[in-house]
């Protein structure tokens, strides 16, 4: 009954969360893509990192993952550091 609606809502919120986190991380967006913090830290050339359905993928270096993975990549931190940063930034416990 409400299952499909919930799924849709979750997907939307997940996408927004990742995009918000990408912005909070200071990633530069150009069009629909971001510059990859792993292989394009200087923001030159064509942005290769795409965000979709709560996950990211870089078409240049192949890095991919969820929102936590993006924080790890951008901040060069381990899993614990990434989660701590997310909790601090979003004010939410996961
Ligand atoms: Zn990359």
From TrEMBL:
Gene3D superfamilies linked: Zinc finger, CHC2-type domain (3.90.580.10)
Highest taxon of source: Bacteria
GO biological-process terms attached to the record: DNA replication
Domain Zinc finger CHC2-type positions: 17-89
Gene Ontology MF, one: DNA-directed RNA polymerase activity
InterPro entries named among the record's database cross-references: DNA_primase_Znf_CHC2, Znf_CHC2
Name used for this protein in its record: CHC2 zinc finger protein
Organism the protein comes from: Desulfuromonas soudanensis
